[in-house]
Every structure is written in C-alpha cells, then in structure tokens.
Amino acid sequence: MPTMSFRLPVDLPESVANDLLRSSIAGGHDRAPTPTQCELRDNHLLLTREINESGPSYIPWEVFGNGRFVCTTTTLMFRERPYDLVVELARGKLNQLRNQYADWIGGGLSASSEVQTLMNRATQLLGGSLIESPRPESDQLANVSLATSFAAGNALIRVYQDQVYRLRHHRQGKLDTVFGCGIRLPPPRGLDDAFRLTFNTANVPLTWRIMEPSESDYRWDEADATIDWALDRNLQVHAGPLIDFSPGGLPDFARRLGSDLVTLKSLMCDYVETVVNRYRGKVTRWLISAGANGTIPLGISEEDLIRLTAMAADAAWQIDSNLQLSFGVSGPWGDYRSDPSFQYSPFVYADTLLRAGLPFAGIDLELFLCSSPRGSYCRDLLETSRVLDLFGLLGVPIQVGLAYPSELTPDALADSIERGDHSGFYGEVTPSAQGDWAAEFSSLVMCKSFVSGLIWDHLNDAEPHRFPHAGLVGQNGEVKPAFDRLRGIRELHLR
Q: Which helix (H) or strand (E) holds 182?
C-alpha cells in the first residue's frame, strides 16, 4: 500500500510522539480523514492507506504558545522521499490562512495590517526553514513560522468577528440567538439569578438511559422539577438528546438486546412517544438523537443507525407534527474516519439524513474538545470556522454544543469511558484557560448567521455529567471564570 513518510525532529517528547499515531490522510469533497495506518519508525512518521491519491494529512502537533492541535498539511503526493514534518505543517497552516484571508477579503472583509504583517513574517520564516532543511535549524524556523501563522489566524478571526457583529447589530440590534446550558436539576441556591442573567435557554437531557434506567421504570421527578423551574423563569426549554447512541448512552436493558433491531426500535419509539407526550407544550426544541455517527453500538451498522434516528423522529412527529426536532452530529472533523470500520463522515451522515426528506428543524453540532472518545481533538479558531462553514452549506440552522475542561484530573461523576486527556489542549487546561476558550469559541460560533444557538454541555460538575470537569461550576461549588465570560458574551450580543 502507498505510504507517506515524514521526518521527525530529534528529541521529540514522548507525549507528542504518541499523539502522532492519531494522524490521518484526508480525502473527499469534505476533506474528512480516510482509513489510515500510522507507524513511528527510525525517527519517521509513516502514514499508509489503500487509496493512492494525493491529499492533505491531519497531524497532532504542539504549537509554540498556542496549544496542541490537529494541524493540516497542504495536499501532498505519495513518494519515496520523506517530507520534513514541521515544514509541511507550517506550509499547510500558512496556505490555509492565506486562502481564508483572500476569500474573506473577496467577500467584503476590510484588510488588516496586523494579519498581513504576521502572514509576511510567517512566510519569511518558512522560506528560511526551507533554506536550512534538513538541519535542526530548519525545524526551529518552521515551528516559529507555524506559531506565527496560528497567531495570524487568531487575529484574522478577531477582525472577521468584529466586522460581522458590527454588520449584524446594525441590521437588527441585539441578536435573538439561543444561548443555553445543560442542567439535570434546578441550579443550587445562589446560582438561580446567575443562570438567568447568563442564559436564555435551559437544556434538559431527558436521555433514555437517565429517564428509563429499567424497562417501564420512568424517573420523572428531576426532569419535572427542572422544566418547571425553567418555565417559571421564562426560559426556553430544549430537551435531549432523547436517544444517545454513543458508548454507554443506551440503558442496560436496551444494550442487552444486542443487534435485535426490531425490539430495539419498538422500545426506543415507545420511550420517545412517552416522553414527548409528557412534555409536549413545555419543550421548545427536541434533540432526537446524538452519537449516531462515529460509533457502532451493539454491532449496529451506520445505515441502521440512520434509520433508527429517522424512526425515532417519526415517532415524535406522530404525537405532534409541529414539533421542532433536530439530530446531533458528533466529532464534526470526523477523526473516527481513520478507522476503516466507519463509512460515513460527519458531513455525509448529516447530508444523508437531510436528504431523506424529513422536516428536521436543524442540526446540533458538537464542539466538545480536549476529551475522548466522544470529544474531538483540539482545533484552533480558524479551523473551527472552516468546519462550521462546511456544515452551513447544508442550508439548515445549526445549533452548536460546546464543552472544554477546566482540569485533567479524574472525575468520578463524568461518563465512565470519557477521558479529559490525549485530545490536545487550547493553550492549557486550567479554569482560566477554560474561560478563554468559552469566550473565544462562543463568540466565533454566534457570529455565524446560520447558527441558531449554542448550548454549553452542563452547568454543574457536582451532578452526573458527560465530560470531565467541563461544567461552569466546580464540584465544590466554586464558580469558574467561564461562567462570567459567557455572561459577558450574552450582555454584549444578545437580547
């Protein structure tokens, strides 16, 4: 099989070297990863796949002063002579930056002297690294060029956001975007007002595993109290995911069915009908399913997961044809596609469901970073903007879920298989860094006109949750900086 080889810098830290084994080669119109075999041998990274076609490579790398991200090369051909890894990463980021800058300038963005200066500096550094190649000085210059391109990308995003927000606020004043947070219980005393001042929407999970842990044994008390609390405070109520197909997301009695799709479909639709009947008229928008792409629970095929999602949605519409239903897309960059077990990239999965002709109100896109296996490996703002724009091409409203941890210690109340490590980091992983991430990424998400809303995954780490330490309130009740940063975003941009 064809192999693409990259020369690695000497004395590479072990943690960085291990993450290189998560690399992949991309392909297709949506530039999703393709099944790729990774190997480290004789100070080289070897990427092998069956398709002998040129393509960009996605490679985790630590960028000076920025964090550890999946970085992208330019389109590379298979050849016997190895590429210099850091040079190609620097070239790839600079290429992405220059193309995006040109696209936005062509669309009416005002030029930025700061961005232009940083791009010129990155170009000069890249040229110097090519002259020095393959000496160690080449890697050093390429690393600085890469970091400079990342800085330019962040500056470009700031310029883009400022001009987009200025235009949108001029047209409609404050925005009416949904700005919410997940809660399983009413917030504890002292956080009630803070929640209402920060968010206009409460997302109550109502997930099958939580609500019906044993067959026909429904647990309504917590959900009833939380929904009543939200409605009493004039908050919108969103619910879901009702069905979570990710590992551990289904109740045990459903998992014991194995691949018995007939019985699983019957039980699943019965649950959907029951919960929709109970809360119809109280819930504004329902997330019918999540985790159906990027996972193969109980040996169920991807095609069958798409059918089950459609069946669950149809069961809800049988109760009320006017329900606002959406479906979830996890791992929007498709990291899981490097495994040959998967056929559908996230974009193709979403497009397939929409082409079925069902009247979905939109898509819920998960930007859960720095966590695995459900979350995605970290990306920067410029790459996040690209993937948001990709899903915007589908022509339906996008609601975005956000999560980023405040620490990497074990979290006994999080999903037992979810780990807050081995998935990169944005600057670092601290409460302060979580606040920076929340402010910067929520600002980017909300400036997109096709984004109808964003939902922070969960409020309180002291309650059971999916992602380790990703709440806005710690397990000891301390309010994290991200809570205040999100309130600032609400005050600045929303009604």
A: strand 178-182
Buried b (16+ CB within 10 A) or exposed e, 329-338: bbbbbbbbbb
Q: What is the per-residue pLDDT for 352?
A: 95
As given in the structure block, the two tokens for residue 6 are: 């990259």
Low-confidence stretches of the chain (pLDDT beneath 70)? 133
Q: How many CB atoms lie within 10 A of CB 192?
A: 13
State the Cα–Cα distance between residues 223 and 118, nearest whole angstrom: 51
Q: What is the pTM of this model?
A: 0.95
* DSSP for 126-171, written as a single string: HHHHHHHTTSHHHHHHHHHHHHHHHHHHHHHHHHHHHHHHHHHHHH
pLDDT at 427: 87
Q: How far apart are CA 4 and CA 9, in angstroms?
A: 17
Angle between helices 85-106 and 113-132 (to 10 degrees): 150
d(CA 302, CA 315): 20
State the pLDDT at residue 418: 85
Fold topology of 174-493:
TIM Barrel (3.20.20)
Q: What is the largest CA-CA distance in the chain?
A: 70
Instruction: Say if residues 399 and 446 touch (Cβ distance below 8 Å).
Output: no
Q: What 3-state class would DSSP assign to 442?
A: helix
Residue 298 and residue 258 in contact, taking contact as beta carbons nearer than 8 Å: yes
pLDDT at residue 299 in the model: 80
pLDDT (tens digit, 9 = 90+) per residue, 88-113? 999 999 999 999 999 999 999 999 99
Cα distance between residue 68 and residue 60, in whole Å: 7
Domain ranges of the chain: 3-169, 174-493
